[in-house]
Specification:
Length: 500
């Protein structure tokens, strides 16, 4: 089994999770067994996996110890009926919520939160004593069983967290220092009756290393996608464990000095302690060259495999618009989305119907919205939020923009090109240069040159003929990243690692 290791999977995807899910589909198509593994406790993991089209392909470290990593069965107890007709409690529905209060006669006993308006998917139940002080919380997995009980002190601090299997048996416990004058602080984890005995861990690293050793079987391969907190516990696993680490971003802190600038903390441990990592995988040949030049002794470990791949898509030319600019990115500082908004402001007098559609989310959204409002650009800059499927949006797109300071690859650029949407991008490390041929299927411009960004975008908007030419070349050149080509690279790595 090939395990793709990550910290968590939420309701919205970052580029790393998007790349990981793409790889799951790629491995499945190529007949390579693969599953995603997350380290965080996440009662909604299986719901999220379903929403991203990878049903049954993810499990967590906690699923492993709870005996539910291969268990997708959903049980619906019918809680409202149980409380009202079995327990003879009074259920009080709270307006404009999916919450209820449960009373035993006149005594308030419980507060429950459901995740749906039909009161079928229970999230948690809070229990209260006769003084209305919360004593504990039961947390339910979306598959329907009580997965965790959080016990509280009288001061409402966490005393312990107990993890249960489907039979309601304790399998793990987190213990906390609940001193009245301090925040609750994790101190210890106990794994109960695992393969015949208890195990006690005084650090999360010890617990994670233990988990990796217990999950691993001969012929398996761990592919670690987030290495800030995963590289060290993986490195401490048994010698028999095979590991590859993935670099998803730039590795140097300063792209102007990749030979001497400090290595980013996310990748520092892996690069400074490379012995246990069979391969260190980056996304572009450009980055691999930089890595090899700086660390020549690790030349045989560095491998370039693009995080994205293309599949043939059906494109309807009649849907293509001539004024729709796209950006698919988080609203984070390194993406510099404000520069795009400023360019659109400059273009509006000449192209009053130009539209910049922003597909993303993040902390920078408020500043962008304020800019739009202050400059009366509500009809020209549209916030679309996070969408799991952009295929219809790409069909309509005229051109896409990439204004990042740095990238690891830029999946969004490859996806746009595959749908015939040319990209105007800053020529940064790494990704755009390997996807875009300047003046052929898009444009590469000097980073932060907003005048050049304005000029190239203006040129595209003024010429439907140029749009058609760039679009046709985008589709053609995107085929360089076919799933067959990328799968072959992965097969070569997996076979090489397992053979040695």
């Amino acid at each position: 089994m090939n395990y793709f290791i990550d910290e968590n999977l939420g309701s919205k995807l970052t580029g790393i999770e998007k790349a990981q899910i793409n790889r799951l589909h790629l491995f499945e198509k190529g007949g390579l067994p693969a599953r995603g593994v997350i380290m965080h406790y996440n009662t909604q993991l299986h719901l999220y996996a379903d929403s991203f089209g990878v049903h049954g392909r993810y499990f967590s470290m906690y699923d492993f110890f709870q005996g539910t990593k291969d268990d997708e069965a959903v049980v619906n107890r019918g809680w409202i009926d149980y409380w009202e007709n079995k327990c003879h409690f009074r259920v009080q529905y709270l307006p404009k919520t999916t919450d209820v209060r449960i009373h035993d006669g006149e005594t308030f006993r419980m507060y429950a939160h459901f995740m749906d308006k039909d009161y079928q998917i229970l999230d948690y139940i809070n229990y209260f004593d006769k003084r209305h002080v919360k004593t504990m919380r039961e947390i339910y997995d979306t598959r329907g069983f009580c997965s965790q009980i959080v016990y509280l002190t009288e001061k409402q601090k966490v005393a312990s967290k107990v993890y249960l299997n489907r039979q309601g048996e304790r399998v793990m416990e987190d213990l906390y220092d609940s001193s009245p004058d301090l925040e609750s602080k994790w101190t210890q984890t106990i794994v109960r009756n695992f393969r015949g005995r208890d195990y006690i861990f005084d650090s999360q690293m010890e617990l994670r290393t233990f988990f990796f050793n217990q999950l691993y079987e001969d012929g398996d391969l761990y592919i670690s996608d987030r290495n800030l907190k995963l590289a060290e516990p993986l490195d401490k696993t048994d010698d028999r464990v095979k590991i590859c680490g993935v670099i998803h971003s730039t590795h140097a802190q300063k792209q102007s000095d990749v030979m001497n600038s400090p290595i980013k903390t996310h990748y520092r441990f892996m690069i400074e302690h490379p012995d246990h990592f069979s391969k260190i995988i980056c996304s572009t040949d450009y980055q691999r060259r930089d890595l090899v030049n700086r660390f020549p002794d690790l030349k045989d470990k560095f491998v370039a495999i693009p995080v994205g791949f293309t599949t043939p898509v059906k494109i309807d030319p009649s849907k293509r618009l001539t004024n729709r600019v796209m950006c698919v990115a988080r609203f984070s500082p390194e993406k510099q989305i404000m520069q795009q908004a400023e360019v659109i402001k400059r273009l509006v007098p000449e192209f009053p119907d130009v539209e910049l559609h922003l597909f993303g989310y993040g902390k920078g959204e408020k500043a962008l919205r304020d800019f739009v409002k202050e400059n009366h650009l509500e009809k020209n800059i549209i916030f679309r939020g996070f969408l799991t499927d952009l295929s219809e949006e790409y069909q309509k797109g005229t051109v896409s923009l990439l204004t990042s300071i740095e990238e690891g690859f830029s999946l969004a650029t490859l996806e746009a090109e595959n749908y015939g949407v040319p990209v105007i991008s800053y020529d940064i490390r790494y990704g755009p240069r390997e996807i875009i041929d300047d003046n052929v299927n898009g444009f590469l411009i000097k980073p932060n040159d907003q005048d050049a960004l304005y000029e190239r975008l203006r040129r595209v908007l003024r010429s439907p003929k140029l749009q058609q030419t760039l679009s046709a070349e985008s589709i053609k050149l995107a085929k360089r990243f076919s799933e067959e080509a990328i799968l072959q690279r992965w097969e070569n790595v997996v076979n090489d690692v397992l053979a040695n």
